[in-house]
Design goal:
The structure is a single chain. The protein is an alpha/beta fold and 154 residues long. It has one domain (7-136): Rossmann fold, CATH 3.40.50. The protein has 6 helices and 5 strands. It has helices at 8-13, 25-37, 49-58, 77-86, 101-113, 128-136; strands spanning 17-21, 42-46, 65-68, 92-97, 117-123. A 5-stranded parallel sheet has the order 2-1-3-4-5, sandwiched between helices. The longest helix has 13 residues, at 25-37. The protein is globular and about 30 Å long.
Length: 154
């Protein structure tokens, strides 16, 4: 689906502002293209939890969603979840990792336990169909409904 075909339904089912946190630059680009094609108007990237914290500090508006790798150099996904809780950052979290399923479930439990909104997890390599299914199960509302929607490809 191209960004030019944005409908109210598309914007309802996809987050407007996304932060992709992963140390794999190719996955970050692929995810950014996916979100841009489905109507997200701001998609930022971070290579680890530290650069993600900096992006959150610079953001003009809160992020609706972060995709979070758990295993990264520097500040990893577990430490980033702790940062979100300590700083009362509210955004939905989608864990994307190649770690074993029990570790991923533990991170989801940590996110839920710390009152963060974990919406699910995906194993790498990421399937566009699975990603779409998780996101489509959410209701995404703009932070400022009076603001016009921008074209991602404009």
């Amino acid at each position: 689906m191209a960004a030019e075909n944005n409908t109210g339904e598309t914007m309802q089912n996809f987050p407007r502002r996304v932060l992709i946190i992963d140390d794999d630059p190719i996955l970050r680009v692929v995810l950014q293209q996916f979100f841009n094609e489905h109507g997200s108007i701001a998609v930022d990237q971070a290579e680890n939890g530290q650069t993600a914290q900096e992006a959150i500090g610079r953001a003009s508006e809160p992020y609706d969603l972060t995709t979070l790798d758990l295993s990264m150099p520097g500040v990893d996904g577990f430490e980033f979840l702790t940062y979100l809780k300590q700083h009362n950052v509210e955004m939905r979290v989608l864990i994307i990792s190649s770690l074993p399923a029990p570790v991923i479930r533990m991170a989801e439990a940590l996110a839920d336990f710390k009152a963060l909104n974990a919406i699910g997890h995906l194993r790498k390599p990421v399937s566009a169909t699975a990603l779409h299914a998780i996101l489509n199960g959410q209701v995404w509302q703009p932070h400022d409904e009076s603001r016009p929607l921008l074209q991602a490809n404009a």
